[in-house]
Amino acid sequence: MGVEGGMKCVKYLLFFFNLIFWLCGLALIVVGILVQMALHNTFMIKDASASGAPIVLIAVGVVIFFIAFFGCCGAWKENYCMVTMFAVLLSLVIIVEIAAAIAGYIFRNKLSVIVQDSLTEMISNYKNGTDEFKNAVDKLQKDLKCCGVNSSADWRNFMPNGDSVPDSCCIVETKGCGIGTMTDAAKVYQEGCHDVVEELLKKNILWVIVAALVIAFLQIMGIIFACCLMRGIRSGYEVM
Question: Which terminus, N or C, of the chain has the lesser number of Cβ atoms within 10 Å?
């Protein structure tokens, strides 16, 4: 009876863990989407490697919903094949999540160069860009209270006088406030956007890494419970 009671406990724990996995899957999808939006919409970063970790997390989050189905049904019906499938698929997901965490960490170290290149391209294309593009650049500078890549001087080619910046660089924005005020610290933000953007992106990527590792730990616990239940089912114990 002691073994039977233990197996029943494992069965319900596995079922409970699968409910958590559903929430974990949702969390991965949300975190992945938020980071992807931050990387490409707000900051207009076009480097393909930037998409790696968030896209993997979104895909893994979707897959977890299906894997949790095997876990729930297998645990509730004590179906050896379904529980085995659950354990195998979950092991593969953990490997992918660890790979995503490593990719995120590696990309984190490349951020400085990628942000530098992306912001430099942003400034170069501003003058001849579409209204939507200009609005995105202006919003970036206004929201982050910065100007240019490394400093306001990066806008030296913005106008023929070489001493003007977009109005979005102004501390108090008014029409034409950026004309002839590039180096005026009282009117224009002097700090570039590079360091601010890099720091913000590092925080987002850190959330991706933390989410992947925490959920991977929970999934390892789920695999342990699944293996215990598989052993009980295969040994022919009655767990109902």
Answer: N
